[in-house]
Specification:
The complex is a heterodimer. By secondary structure, chain A is mostly helical. Chain A has one domain. Helices cover 76% and strands 0% of the residues of chain A. By secondary structure, chain B is mostly beta strands. The longest helix of chain B is centred in the first third of the chain and has 10 residues. Chain B starts with a helix and ends with a strand. Classes of the chains: A mainly alpha, B mainly beta.
Amino acid sequence: MEQILNRPELQSAVAPFVIALLAYLGLRKISTLAWLWAVCAAFLVSVLLINGVTVTPLTGTRKIILLVLISFVAAALLPRLLPRANLQRAVAAGAAVLALLWVFWTVLARMEAGAIALFVAGSIGLALWLLFHFDRLARSDARLHAAGFSLLLGVGLSATAAASALLGQLALALSAASAGAFLAWVLFAKKDATEASQAPITTLPYVLAPLLLGLAAVIFARLPWYALLALAAIPLAVSLLPLKPDSRFLSALLSSLPGLVIAIAVGFWVWQTGSPDSGY
Amino acid sequence: MKKYLIIAALATLPVNALQAADYTIDPGHTYVSFAINHLGFSTMRGKFDRQSGSMHYDPAGKKASVMIEIDAASIDTGHDKRDAHLQSPDFLNAVEYPTITFKSSAVTWSGDKLATVSGNLTILGVSQSVTLEVSAINCGQHPFNKKQICGFDATASIKRSDFGVNYGLPAIGEVLDLQIELEATKNE
């Protein structure tokens, strides 16, 4: 049993996908934000399988895990506490900046001033880009989830190819969980839920998780920064193909295809450029 | 004349009956290496290319201490891709935890020879008590630069999971055999 639980494909693909799918089915009649709770629960199980319950030492990766879990809870609870959309946007932006500082401060403190300025400008720019585009995508559930799971897939594949299996596994687990909840939404959501608009703050996990995991793969491992730039096109690309209002399945498929193509292409590219020889 | 020749010859040999002195580790003659089981097939070896530190050695007073700082990013297993992986958060997390340190806290002696050095080894910010078994220690004047040198060979076994380095367990070995061959130059 332990051998099975130690298998990366179970930890980062099968388990989060199935748990999110089943959790969504169980929660969809209780909460309109069932997908958030479903993905959060599935990610938590993956984290326990990958990392265990160890919190110390509080490494950057463990900080990211905590922040992603908190972002799910915040995204589910804050729409009621902060009903004004602009206030939610401000909170999401502030949370992203604070998260970046908390995770990367120990490394930033050792950098030269020029490198710090470059990192701060680049990371905050990327955060604002993702916040802006996911905010726009919140008007369409199909596009929002397609962008979320494709972006996380791209970060996961690229981080794995850039020599950090841990960061890669975490991103892939989130991607699989998002895909599981997305599939459940496609198959079982109420008919009138097709184009339900999400509150801006609900997109926070889809912004924070790829942002932090992607930057961690750049800073702590060997992911080229320009791979993140290429992946940042995914939230734009999911809107390339028109939606089919009469078919959730087709809308989901058309939204997912461009993002998946970019995610796989960037992952393959990083693997090719970063691997001059075969495995070891 | 014969007496002076014997004294001169003895002066060039490593001796242990020395005065207490502080030494600085010579990175060019210090090797920190390790061996670990690879997937049950064979033993994989690696080393760190950059280290620094100091030691105090007082065989007459039966006192000694060692402090070694190892640059985690200097890990070298002769394979660039594997070295990049070993530096990543999966293993040493060298960007966040750039230094591996060993600070001694106690020593034991076998006669006038240093036998063990116990202290705290810190990897990934986690400190664990480790005992180095000293297999040889020699001090004396360097034959070429005439500086006072001390050198020792030591080994220890650690469990990497004790330091939170859990990736790849149990397939990639849990027990890491450490080997330290160190030379240090007496401070002027």
